[in-house]
Amino acid sequence: MAKPAFRFTHYDLKELRTGAIIEVSLNAVNNVRLMTSGNYQRFTEMLDFKYLGGVAKKSPVRVTIPETSHWHLIVDCEGHHTLAESAVKMLPPRSMPVLREKSTATA
């Protein structure tokens, strides 16, 4: 079975919920691709696949998970000189503003 001819780093992010935010740190320009399990399988088999992301020229890169699913992140050097060193971390979800109930009591 054929495999991609370029080097890549794979992160299995497991199931993530809609709105989760991940931060990817790189030490060089590389491609950052977020994909579902089905698309990751297609990627490894060198078939057409869909992903979110693209060339990351700045680091860190923040990606918001678009829907609850099992996600995979690929950092790869296709079209670039070398595979970047990379790290992925989860960021705390953006907090919603707290609405405070106004008091109508008078003293």
Provide an overview of this structure.
This protein has 107 residues and is mainly β. It has one domain. 7% of the residues lie in helices and 42% in strands. It is built from 1 helix and 7 strands, in the order βββαββββ. It has one helix at 37-44, and strands at 8-16, 21-26, 30-36, 52-56, 61-64, 69-76, 86-91. It has a 4-stranded antiparallel β-sheet with strand order 1-6-3-4. The chain is globular.
> What is Rg?
19 Å
- Spatial order of strands in the largest sheet: 1-6-3-4
Which structural class matches the secondary elements? mainly beta
Strand content range: 35-45%
Number of separate helices = 1
- Overall pLDDT score: 87
Give the low-confidence spans. Answer: none
How would you characterize the largest beta sheet?
A: 4 strands, antiparallel
Summarize this structure as a short list of keywords or feature phrases.
107 residues; four-stranded antiparallel sheet; 1 helix; globular
Topology summary:
Blueprint lengths: L7 E9 L4 E6 L3 E7 H8 L7 E5 L4 E4 L4 E8 L9 E6 L16
Antiparallel strand pairs: 1-6, 2-5, 2-7, 3-4, 3-6
Can you give me a brief rundown of this structure?
This protein is mostly beta strands. Helix content is 7%, strand content 42%. It has one domain (8-91).
